[in-house]
Amino acid sequence: MPSPVYKRILLKLSGEALMGNQGFGVDPLMAGRIAQEIKEVHELGVEMAVVIGGGNIFRGLSATAQGMDRVSGDLMGMLATVINAIALQDALEKINIFTRVVSAIEMRQVAEPFIRRRAMRHLEKRRVVIFAAGTGNPYFSTDTAAALRAMEIKADVILKATKVDGIFDADPVKVKSANMYSEIRYMDVLRQGLRVMDTTAISLCMDNNLPIVVFNLLHPGNIERVVLGEKIGTVVKV
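Predicted structure:
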């Protein structure tokens, strides 16, 4: 079996990934499936951190568009990510993978506060670290939180799990003839306004030369394939 090409990764999951076929909330079966895929990669000896969104429970931007204060909406969205992090932790620990939920908003009864050196020590001890509550600040998305945390823990790559096979030159759901990139530069993502991650996250990765692999989570085994170096999805790099 080939060896992993990355030693330490940060996996970015959307909150919608936990919904499964439901229209809202957390599907325990889907959480279990994702946990099993994380376990398979973890057992290869890869150190893993996860950032998960909260869109399956609450979207701050959507609420803002309907008249809610932006700061209030973003705070509620950050709390939704904590719910998802606990759900994923439960699914992982049921299959004997030790985890730590680390929150940017202090809530010691349910999660550890984010302390960079402690988080890195958990990774070294072979624990999966789930970063919750974004950056702890409004106006920053969980994409930006993923880029920030990946750099803080010195991850080799961000794996951005999506519902499509990679990055396309048009929306593949609406445009059947859309072409997928196998590789693309950060600057081209920004210039073309491709909706991969928000511009702050892409700029952070570009400034720190942190590669991003965008791939389809719906195909079982894809996380492991990416980690083993198979040509899956789209690589964003310099």
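Summary: The mean pLDDT is 94.
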